[in-house]
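REQUEST FORM: STRUCTURE PREDICTION
Request ID: SP-0412
Submitted by: Lab K.M.
Chain count: 1
Length (residues): 208
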Amino acid sequence: MPLAVRYMVVPIAFSIALSLCSPSAAEVIASKSYSYFDIRGKTADELDRELSRRGPTASGSSARHPGATKIRFGGEATYIQNSGRCHVGNVKVTVHTQIILPRWSSRKGASKELSMIWDALSSDIKRHEERHAEIARDQARAMERSIRALPQQRSCEAMQELVSNESARGIEEHDRQQARFDRVEAVNFQKRMLRLLNNRINGRAGAK
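STATUS: Completed
RESULT:
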């Protein structure tokens, strides 16, 4: 069962408000939800086919995968005009992640060996997707800090453009980090699965 998990991201969209005078504040709001798709099968090949047939698709591709994480960024910023200068007032960056995972609905009656393989695979898929969500949350915090630190501008129009450019750079960096993580995971998949299976086998032997 090859692991080919993908993340999907929706670009950040800041809503803007202009304030003559207000205290500065910053906030990152992160939320996470889970959804599942059911698969059936009594052999490894059947489960593999089910994952290929029922798994989620990534943006811009019709290929299906064992799991996915949908990521949506958003935000709000206010600008303060004072003495001919404009700076960022309040900043709020939001990130919502939806983790999509497989659920084996016909496990009852399956062999212990297949159950052990599935437990190792499904736990690795979940760990992988949780890390995608964590990367998104970390980047949301980094974006909030970078926007809040932007220098004053002569006009709020120029300040707004600066915020838009900075948010775009933040999304690009987020995508680079996610792609880098996927590349590393793909290279280490076989070793990671063997280690997980060995740990489960050793754990069962130790429990006897």
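NOTES: Residues 29-206 form one domain.
Reviewed by: T.R.
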